[in-house]
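Key idea: predict the complex, not the pieces.
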Amino acid sequence: MLRIGVFVCHCGHNIASAVDVDEVVEFARKLPGVVYAGQNLYSCSQEGLGSIKKSIEDNDLNRVVVAACTPRTHEPLFRRACEQAGINKYLFEFVNIREHCSWIHAKEPEAATGKAKKLVAMGVAKASLLEPQEEGESAVIPRAVVIGAGISGLAAAASLLDQGIETHIIESKNCVGGLLREVAVIGPEDIDSRNLINSLEKRLTSSPKAHLHLNSRVKEVKGFVGNFEVTIAKGDEDITVQAGAIIVATGTREFQPAGEYGFDEYPAVITQLELERRLAKSDFAASRMAIINCAGSRQPGREYCSRVCCNASLKNALRILDKNPDAQVTILHRDIMSCGAAAEELYRRASERGVRFVRYGLEKRPQVHAKENGVVLEAFDETLDETIDLDLDLLILATPLVPPEDSVETGKHLKVPRDKYGFFLEAHVKLRPVEFATDGVFVCGSARWPVSARECIWQGQAAAAKASIPISEGKVRIEAITAEVDPDRCAACGNCVLACPYEAIEIVEHLDTMAAKVNEAQCKGCGTCVAACHNDAIQQKGFSSRQLGAMIDALIRTATEGTQ
Amino acid sequence: MPVDYILTTCPYCGTGCNFFLQVADGRAVGVVPCKTDETSAGSLCIKGYNAHAFVNHSDRLTHPMIREGDQLSKATWEEALQRIASEMKRISDEHGPDAIMVLASAKCTNEENYLIQKVARAAIGTNNVDHCARLCHASTVAGLLQSFGSGAMTNTIPEFENADCILVTGSNTLEAHPLIGTRILKARDKGAKVIVVDPRDTPLSRVATISMRQESGSDVAWINGMINIIISEKLHDEEFIAARTTGFDELREIVKNYTPERVKSLTGIPEDDLVSAAKMYASADKAMIAYAMGITQHSNGTNLVRALANLAMVTGNVGRESTGVNPLRGQCNVQGACDAGALPNLYPGYQSVEDAETRSKFEHAWNRKLSEKKGMALTNAFDKALTGEVKAMLIFGENPMMSDPDIGHVERAISKLEFMAVIDIFPTETVKLADVVLPAACYAEKNGTFTATDRAVRAVRKAVDPPGDARPDWQIACDLGRLLAGDGFDFASPEQVLAEMAAVAPIYGGIDYERIEEEMVRWPCPSKDHPGTKVLHTESFKIGKGVFAPIEHTPPAEETSDEYPLILTTGRNLFQFHTGTMTRRSAKLQREAAGPYVEINTEDARRLGIIDDASVRITSRRGTITLAARVTQWIRPGTIFIPFHYAEAAANRLTNNALDPTAQIPEYKVCAARLEKA
Amino acid sequence: MRLAFEERGADYLLAIKEAHGQAAPVLLRKGDDAGTMRFDVPYQMTMILTNISRFIKEGRIAVVARRCDERAIAELVKRDLLNHDNLVVIGLACSEEQIRECRCTDPCPSSADIGHCAAPAKEDQAASSIQSMPLPDRLDYWIDQFRKCNKCFGCTLNCPVCFCDDCLLEEKTFTPEKGIPPGLAFHLIRAVHLADKCVECGECERSCPSDIPLLALRKMVNQDMKRMFNYTSGDPERRSPLLTTLEGDPMEDDGDAC
Amino acid sequence: MSEFNPNILAFCCNWCSYAGADLAGVNRLQMPPNVNVVRVMCSASVKPEYVFKAISQGIDGVLVLGCHIGDCHYLTGNHRTAKRIPLTAKILEKVGIDPRRVQLDWVSAAEGEKFQQVVTQFVDDIRSLGPNPMKEVRF
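Result:
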């Protein structure tokens, strides 16, 4: 006997501002099989989860439908609540009425409410056909792979090694340290970056469990959490490493602003990293300089703030003044983002020491004109509301950090998503930081977003901590979404065998005839075979054709019979 | 040979399709249609394709059983046959032979039905033999005998394809006689007009030229209305009427009162539709009428059949190809069971038991003195069991505990019997109440002939052995005949039985196995050199002139009331057959239509707050059943429909056993009922 | 047709012979009396062969096969549903009348052991006239045709390349109609199931008691398969493009919305 | 008769297009409320049968969204989608249903805006096609 409970979430105003939650609850109550329908202000809060658990027990529910946000982030939470209340977690169904409804139909409350009802009806229809599932288990290879030996990758590797986990580090260059190697000191505390890199490198070289592959690239990645197979191309040689987890620490690179502000045209126009390089030399001689912040960022096509540049400009202005106290340094900025006490102190010191701050806007961008041994910068100062001309020996462009060229490749190898700028997308910024949606693959440092060296280290350590969980547990659970054959229905036509991207299906003898069989450990639960099967002999757990068919029926029914 | 293809005749409806049973390792494993068969032409319906499925079912009865207290216990054939014979003799001695009722079976072959009626008449000495034709086409036999002189389909199945107009009423042809239905579709595709009159929108009505939904039980009104329109539009065939019929003037007088307006008030059929339909039917060169239970199963069933005969004769649509009045018989051999004399008033070949000359012919042939008294109809037998006049029943392959109206009444009647023996292939609801049970062979396990609804005599061939100790009914009948009467039952094969039947039934006179093996012969076929008859009444009617019957509309026996506001009608669906004994044991058929349901109009459902698949309770004056609602626009508001296949919610717990006075057929098609949420 | 046994070394011969005045399928062994053989009645021999092969585990079966049977056999062999080594194919050339009935464009068996190859038909008039209808008319046309369906499953049961015992169309999941006719999805699902295997034998149309022009529908879909994937069913070498990656079968872009 | 409000079914793969839809939500990208998403693990698991069922029963349009070719979480799962769904639309055309009622597109997890565009465009397309004629057909 079906006893479905439906819980509709307000998500504060996030849902309730567009969707009439009361109405949806009333509607849900009348759906077939529903014995309880209620609402929560925040279903995911302790209180919300507690009330769901209590309702399960009070109403003897055997199926739970939560209409709230996205299953991609919150499903585990509610599944756990179901388990705690004594229901198999696969008897839970998530309906997304926030990302897929209230947020995208914010101005049409009536339509949003109608759609929420449809989605709830579909969810309830599927829930009524859900079946409890047992999860399989699979062993985890106690080894990790870190891609990238920049500061993030080094921090991650060092942390893994500290935990005694054998770690392979793949670095495309011939040395470790990545982008940080080109920066002498790290602001705002003026930390010597060489020392930092060396100390981390030492922790690698001192460990017998570390395997550093320089001049190497990832060629292919197969497998799944606990059981990856990474092929490394090292020169002409291919090395295959079996690993339980992979950390992506592929870092970032500095944007080369071809054609902007006279870059490539005038030798006096350089990027900030070039400035770092020149400052590292003893013969640094320029005295009239300007730094343009946000050169190539926060503008159409690259809208993001690169986060590290403001501090770098401040730090470098001060370093210039340290070398040449008479130097005239102007920072052209759009906003100075120097968050935190240490960075704010940097800004104060720069102001005190005469660094001139000029605020410019995108409408009247600074113009660069030719001049012997330098350039003339014509800038419109928004604060003074007038145009100023600066005679410069050097013009430094603080350009944003962008993903490395090979991040496309890396993303494809690992089947992990990237955002529109090419940075990797983690599963959820708040709920699942440093994790990809793909189990067993993690991300840290500037591969996911431009961050400071300090944050790189934090994230490297965080990713290592996450990666060590399956490795130290020694096994992972296989989500029960694998395919299953009904051998009595199967005609052994081999469609599924051919369609499976993982070669996880074979035809075997069954009683006196033949039938397909799914190797559960190899099955990743994509359902490609399901669509290839002509007589529904193969079904994906949790996505059976009856369940999806019932969702379609529910959608049709609510459309024809109305949502009252 | 490891795999064989045995040509045989389908055991379901009366269309008489031939197909090949695929036999492998001694089991029936599949069905292949026969491409050269005139009737099926290489097609079958879903039941035909699954006709092998029940044969191997584990529920088959495999050994005789005798009741000991509450239990049926395994017995030998010797013990079981002896037990039946001694009980029959005892009851006959104590109460006379008319205290015994014998039920033959439309599922048995011609030969078996012949033998069963012979057991009743010659071995027991009673004309109390009947079979389920009583429940389906008794009114056809009675009505068409009176109008035309022959109670069978006037034309043949293939002729449907060449008709110009086909009027279908009270027949859900595409579901109940699929391959006749598809012949009608072929005619439609060639341009023929199809008129369907039915309280439900049937699959056929949805592709018909005109579809009219009459109120159940109002059929005389619309038929008379059509005749009235035809006469007033001068579309009647005066020449035909004058030359070939009698009684036209009385008919004309009667139908005058059936104006389109009045017909609308009686039936609900819009005037325009009725006029169009009448003109369409009357102006076609070749117009056929096909009908089934929707006409016959009424307390005025005989009159309804005669009204249709009137309609055909008025327009001269009798006696030519692709015309006529065509009752669609619903069982593989219900036609043959009637032909073979499994009727209380007729000997084999429709010869009256009350006619002295005929009787003496049979007495001579069978070497016995025969009862002069007309026997009892099946539907009366249960009444008589309640009153104690009937003490014993011998039932071959029938399941009255499902098939008869008002099952509660049947159950009470059976409990009054002193003795009941049942011969069947499965443990039916009736078998469970029997004193002696004999396991029979099914169609795939014996030789014989079935006569299709269009009078075609078709061979049934043995493909596999019966399960366990089961035996063909013809052998059982012979064994019982020998035990009860001694001689007259020494047949070595069905072939010999048919030879004897041909000798006493002139319509079968020229039919023998040699011919059946190679050709399709339709009776009447009086002699070996006669080719058989496709179209009846070509030159003259069997009774000389066709008789018009002036019929007035009468309301059904039971009308709706506040307490029972809905009209309940019953029928078949495509996937199940009759009491479900065979089809519900065929996995694929069962899956298509697994459980009992009631069709209710969308409007009625909304009013009653019933949603699709909801559980509902239906109550009539006789009983209550609970089943699932099927909400549909295909049925008239105010009418509900229940298929009668499902024992767990048997429609016949509700139906009315009001009988047609002539044919004693019950009014299955109309009773008053109430529907509520369960 | 003793050439099956003597020349080609078969143990059984599947053919059609005259029995009880009808053309009947028959399985013969060497030395059996064949009676009168019939080659004029187009039984679906592959379908019968497949059923028989379930029960005959040993020995080679010779089958009188038309060109479409050859192609159907190829589809089944590809899927390991028939073993080619156990078959002896005796080619039967179709008569002109049969070619006309099937609008067959590929009527000649690889070896015409019986009969003579006649010229193929040019195009399917039925299919082209349906194709030329505007969409709403076409839908009306098909609805009228599909309304005649009484769900006998003859089109699947007699189909040489419909190999499932339990058919999806028997379930209510995708074809929820209770009773008959089944809805549009019934016929669409069959169309997609057959897209990569229909050999245009025409048996679905022939065995349809309601004369639904199913062969025309099959031909139209097959044309699409040809256009989109350059695929023709019955090719023993090529696997279904619907199951393989794009590398195996790059798609022809025919400028459609998708 | 009120204004035609299409009832549309969309299948989104868990990894790319469902995430893209989520992203559209996070970014509050507004779009017409006619599209109802069913989450599947991979677009390759979308049986043509679902599409046929939906269209036969009167759903006005079916949108199938997956990862871009090459980005499929399941390696080459969506290669099958790329062939199956266009064929599905073609078959519908054969019986007189406008093939534009079934569309396939690729939306990555980062393409919230593309999701918005695809949905908006599809709803516009369906609006211009009008209601699914199967709604009026009683078989």
